[in-house]
Amino acid sequence: DVKIGNVRLESLKEDTLKAKRIRTDVSKLNQQTEAKMNSLNRIEDRINHLQQERIKLNDVIQQANLTRDQIQQIINKRDFFLATYNSLKDIVNDRPETTEELKEMLNNHRQSEGQMSGERNRLVEQRMKTERKLKAAQDELSTKHTQMGKLMAAKEQIEEQIQRRIEMIESINTSEGLSLPINDGQKTASLLRKHMLKSQHMSIVESKKHLVKQTENDMSQIENLKNKLLEFNVSSAEIEDAKEAVEKEKNTLEQLEASSNTVSRETLTQKERMLRELDEKITDLNDEMNKLSKLSDSSAKLSLKRTELESKKATTKRL
Fold first, then answer.
1. pLDDT tens, 147-164?
2. What is the pLDDT of residues 10-29, one digit of tens each?
3. The model's pTM
4. Which residues contact residue 214 at a Cβ distance below 8 angstroms, ignoring those fewer than 6 apart?
5. Are 39 and 285 in contact (CB under 8 A)?
6. 222 neighbors 127 (Cβ within 8 angstroms)
7. CB-based contacts of 157: which residues, under 8 Å, 6+ apart?
């Protein structure tokens, strides 16, 4: 009976040591999970910052669209004046001027028409600048979505690592007959899935709606502008007003272009630097997690061997 009691006592001691080791491993796993959550929060902050930059780029595109609408208004005024001119031409009687005077007026009109042709060319050039700026903004928006996709991929990788730790805890519960809590791991996985789905949904839906609508509107306006420019023809009495309006729009477009180029270059450089730093941190974090995982496994095996050795020594002494 004493020997049986001693055996039971030794078995109980071994179970106690095993439970302590398991609790230590679980504590380490919880600490690692908390560290990964902090890393995820930093990644979320970076993603939010990129989304704010995308909103700023959309504002620039809207401003370019407003300028294009103003140019369209000028073209509509020209069409109205042409229609008025044509209607008046049908009801105008013979002019009292002599032939020489009419020739001089015709020459003056041709000169004015040549000047207006130059204004028309400048208007076409402004339209082309606006199209290039819109294309550059759309390309930069696409680049931002690619960068956001990389950050989301990093989130998924960390989520998989957290899931493996949850499965390890469940395996310990099953193999050792314990009831260790795994609520923290489940909450972490749920939070990651929620943020990931929300970010992907907002980014994809909003970008698709905006780009599709923007592209359709731009192509329609550009086509209308081309058709209108082919019909460009005004009278000498309207040239000065049109020149003044076109010059104002030109100045507005040049200021907008200068401001947009400066902001875009600085923003793009800053985002590229931030993304490189974030990629380096994610790589270091993955290396550290792999090392910790290997170290945890090695420590657990070493501790088990030491326990078995101490048990055998104790049994030898008793014998």
1. 777 777 777 777 777 677
2. 777 887 888 888 888 888 88
3. 0.23
4. 61, 65, 134, 138
5. yes
6. yes
7. 282, 286
